Amino acid sequence: MVGQSPAEPRAAVLLQPFVHQVGGHTSMLTYDEHTICKPLVSQELSFYESLPLAMRQFTPQYKGIVSVHLKKDSLGNLTLIASPGLGQPDTCGRLDSAGADPAVTLWHKCKWSHTQVTKTFKDSCPGKMLLRTDLQYHTDSLLEDANGKQAERKSYNPWGLHCHRQHLNRMSSKHNENKLHQFLLLENVVSKYSYPCILDLKMGTRQHGDDASEEKKARHIKKCEQSTSASLGVRICGMQVYQADTGHFLCKDKYYGRKLSPEGFRQTLRQFLCNGNQLRTDLLEPIILRLKALLAVIRKQSSYRFYSSSLLIIYDGQEHKEGVDQHLPFPKTHSTNPSRVDVRMIDFAHTTFKGSKSNPNPTLYDGPDHGYIFGLENLIKILQSLLEGK
Predict the structure, then answer these.
(1) Do residues 145 and 127 make contact, with C-beta atoms less than 8 angstroms apart?
(2) If you average pLDDT over each of 35-39, 97-101, 122-126, 317-321, which comes out highest?
(3) Which CATH code fits 193-319+337-389?
(4) What residues does each domain of the chain span?
């Protein structure tokens, strides 16, 4: 820290790719252990600033805005540096690898070149644990180290690296190093989990925003028609699930999710709840209860349309026995939930609602988002059938 006086600037923060990003196309970055950041979109900021009270338990906590710029070293490696300004939340301090999550520390050891991210990553990261071949995201595989052996807590979903590489390429080609970019600071909703199992679901029967071009609109409509978005109102956008029998995370990406039939969607949902040894039936009821609570809230949100937003279902891949791991407390909203599950809505760049500051003349909709509700209802039905052993 550069002093403690509130009148002085805060220390710069080196941003790292968020190792548990399983979906989306925007690069999510780690700001500190409990905070991630993403490029600011005015429509998303407007949503967080006027978030209905009832929805707050189902969304990440909004922590403010930070300025970010590119920095290039003598070898041409690019990094992203956050420069906290005055009035930033006290919870967001300097990122320090001492005592940090091993997942974060792992990425600290990597240098990022916008032209050779893959090669640099393979050469500089211990164990070379992420990639067996050159960024093959379209394949479904267990992640291994270079020798084909499992690595203790060192296999992570490669999607974050993919998004980060693309993001650096875009930024470096369009802007110089001195340009400041505004990023949103948001709660890291998986920070309390030892082995976060994450399912990223694209919700609703429509994905394009009101501002989409005719070309983009047609593209998104086609994706929905050819996937479970049309038939179920939900499709898989990414997944990682810890396999206790191998010590690896099993990962799926959005390309896999787009190809699934309704039955394939159901089987993948079941796979998300399987730890390699058994189906985690203990998770089903608490997840269903959270989804029903969210459904009740969404039904009351008149004028809101959550186009292209996602829903995360999260649980810890390491089962915790009663009386163990007391240093990992349950959040207050889950104090009666021994299975440590969470359900959170994310990605609101195309969310529209009456009174949006970023769009003074939005397309006004009556009633709740029926496409989103349709997806939630089908998701609950499928999980209920798994609970009943069907």
Answers:
(1) yes
(2) 35-39
(3) 3.30.470.160
(4) 9-88+160-191, 193-319+337-389
